[in-house]
Amino acid sequence: MTAGNTATDGGLKALKRDLRAAASREKAAVLRRFFRTGPGGYAEGDVFIGVTVPRQRAIAQRHIILAFTDLAVLLRSPVHEERMTALLILTYRAARADAEDRRRILDFYLTHLDAVNNWDLVDLSADKIVGAALDGHAGDALARMARSRNMWERRIAMVATFHFIKQHRADEALRVARLLLHDEHDLIHKAVGWMLREVGKRCSRDTLESFLKPRYRSMPRTMLRYAIERLPDERRAAYLAGAV
Fold first, then answer.
1. What is the structure's pLDDT at 10?
2. Are 4 and 123 contained in the same domain?
3. Can you list the alpha helix ranges (DSSP code H) found in the chain?
4. Do 122 and 172 belong together in one domain?
5. 60 lies in the same domain as 180
6. What is the pLDDT of residues 175-206, one digit of tens each?
7. What per-residue confidence (pLDDT) applies to 61?
8. 3-state secondary structure of 221
9. Are residues 43 and 86 in the same domain?
């Protein structure tokens, strides 16, 4: 039930017009600072026009049948909100697609991975597109992404496992977490810690702690703090003190 593949210039122009109408110069300035777009930042050079995520979601819903060729144009855009809106459209389509169309959406997503180049873009799309399409045969694909030299691909691998965690299935998340346990980037530390926290919340605390106990002393501190965030106060303190 995925939309057709022929270009619809009017639809693309209308979507861009909707985004510009919702843009705010003041919001754009805030977003440029928040997402570290300056020299040396992880989002260096990214262009923001200042559209809030709720407005982008509404615009994506209005243009949900936009063709893949038009989505490809948006994903090549230097404008962050254009790439995000394209990804939102893909997530909405994936949610209502059958297995064949989910795989088609995944292939399109993987072809345009260079556009998924900020943590918010990863986090809104990875579980809904990658995790959902790979359900049942995720291991090798996620492991390859987790070993990528590209930091965003590694984060995609980790966040994709949220799809399984939501179904109370921890194995994929723990497998990817082991591969990323000693990653050097703090955005990976945060993603791994976040997914481990969700394992404890949605699967079981015992599963989380069984993973943590032999590893927590060597984990990056940020990763550990995220992972134990929902544990009781005294248990968190014990982990932070190295006394578990």
1. 62
2. yes
3. 9-21, 25-34, 53-62, 68-75, 80-95, 99-111, 119-125, 132-134, 139-146, 151-160, 162-165, 171-180, 186-198, 205-212, 221-227, 233-240
4. no
5. no
6. 999 999 999 999 999 999 999 999 999 999 99
7. 96
8. helix
9. yes
Q: What is the pLDDT of residues 81-103, one digit of tens each?
A: 999 999 999 999 999 999 999 99
Could you tell me the two tokens for 233?
Answer: 């106060």
Q: Which of 87, 102, 127 is the last residue of a domain?
A: 127
Same domain, 1 and 100: yes
Cβ partners under 8 Å of residue 87, min gap 6 = 75, 115, 116, 121, 124, 125, 129
For 199, list phi and psi in degrees, rounded to 5. -60, -45
Domain count, the chain: 2
**Structural tokens at position 223:** 């990763």
Taken in order 159, 45, 112, 185, the sign of the CA dihedral is negative
The residue range of the domain holding 98 is 1-127
Tell me how far apart the alpha carbons of residues 29 and 38 are, in angstroms, rounded to a whole number. Answer: 12
Q: In angstroms, how far is CA 111 from the centroid of its own chain?
A: 16
Do 55 and 107 belong together in one domain?
Answer: yes
Q: What CATH number has the domain bearing residue 47?
A: 1.25.10.90
Is-contact 180 154, C-beta < 8 A?
yes
